[in-house]
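Ops channel
N.P.: pipeline sanity check, posting one input/output pair.
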């Protein structure tokens, strides 16, 4: 016969699992807002503590002032840039639809500027004839550009839902700033884990979040701004849009912003814009590239303890699954995975020694 205590514990676990699943379904529409509210509270917790000291322990005022700083310094510039990007994306999409932007023509110009050996290699590299290669590549570029611009436009179409989620995120951020430390302690103590293991996982979570947002985010923002400025100087249309794409690419290890500026430089060189191509290459190598080499070790270092290939795969998978939130959630999932296996290996080694 099964002991009564075991049945009660099993019923409690089942109740907690069902109630947790139900709560998750209820708040699923605001999961991104809640996630970014938690990340903002975690990232700006040191600022909150400093303001709390200046406010002589008045937590409500300190949380409100911290939230005001976040709105002015982070959210408002992001909204302004986002609106400009949507405007430029609309223009690019309209030009693609009207035929003003024709990737087939651009590809033909690049192909004609190549040496004869490279032209023959392109024609014989599995595409059959140049016309087939031109059609396939131009269609791929057109589809990719259309998808990017259409996704940017959907942000404006869902304005009401965005405003609601935005308001929920700000509201929750206030309370997480004010009560975040106490809430985190309660969560850690209630996890069905040994206290040392729970604290280790929580510490790894904080390290990965801060390294990903503070480090990689700042580096990507700097590279995107420099890329947008470079494209504006050489007269590229929609320079801000391409700068944003460069910032997103900068979040991906082993890929980086070169995936954006290198094809642009190739096109400029092939079409006779020699000095513009030289400026783009020089900026990409000596300015944008140096930003990554100088800032990333200082801001990120190796705190995450994650290999670059794993960060790349989990970031891409996170973006595919969760959109923008996947940039942070992907590396966090990888960190939890590695931390869990490290703890298990340590426990196994300890039991073997005993």
């Amino acid at each position: 016969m099964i002991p009564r205590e075991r049945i009660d514990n099993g019923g409690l676990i089942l109740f907690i699992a069902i109630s947790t699943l139900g709560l998750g379904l209820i708040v699923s529409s605001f999961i991104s807002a809640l996630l970014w509210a938690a990340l903002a509270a975690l990232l700006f917790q040191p600022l909150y503590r400093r303001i709390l000291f200046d406010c002589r322990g008045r937590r409500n005022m300190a949380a409100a002032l911290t939230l005001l700083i976040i709105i002015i310094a982070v959210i408002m510039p992001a909204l302004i840039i986002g609106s400009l990007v949507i405007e430029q994306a609309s223009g690019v999409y309209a030009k693609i639809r009207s035929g003003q932007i024709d990737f087939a023509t651009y590809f033909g110009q690049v192909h004609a500027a190549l040496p004869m050996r490279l032209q023959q290699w392109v024609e014989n590299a599995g595409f059959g004839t140049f016309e087939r290669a031109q059609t396939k590549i131009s269609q791929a570029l057109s589809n990719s550009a259309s998808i990017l611009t259409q996704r940017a436009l959907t942000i404006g179409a869902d304005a009401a839902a965005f405003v609601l989620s935005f308001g929920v995120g700000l509201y929750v951020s206030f309370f997480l700033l004010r009560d975040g430390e106490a809430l985190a302690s309660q969560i850690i103590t209630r996890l069905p884990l040994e206290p040392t293991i729970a604290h280790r996982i929580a510490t790894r979570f904080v390290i990965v979040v801060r390294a990903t947002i503070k480090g990689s985010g700042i580096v990507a923002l700097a590279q995107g701004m420099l890329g947008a400025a470079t494209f504006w100087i050489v007269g590229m249309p929609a320079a801000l849009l391409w700068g944003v794409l460069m910032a997103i690419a900068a979040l991906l290890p082993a890929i980086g912003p070169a995936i954006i500026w290198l094809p642009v430089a190739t096109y400029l060189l092939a079409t006779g814009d020699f000095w513009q191509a030289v400026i783009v290459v020089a900026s990409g190598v000596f300015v944008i590239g140096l930003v990554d080499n100088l800032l990333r070790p200082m801001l990120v270092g190796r705190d995450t303890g994650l290999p670059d290939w794993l960060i790349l795969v989990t970031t891409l998978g996170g973006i595919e699954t969760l959109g923008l939130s996947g940039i942070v959630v992907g590396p966090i999932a990888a960190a939890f995975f590695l931390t869990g296996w490290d703890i298990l290996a340590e426990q196994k080694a300890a039991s073997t020694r005993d």
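N.P.: looks fine end to end. Residues 109 and 271 are 6 Å apart (CA to CA).
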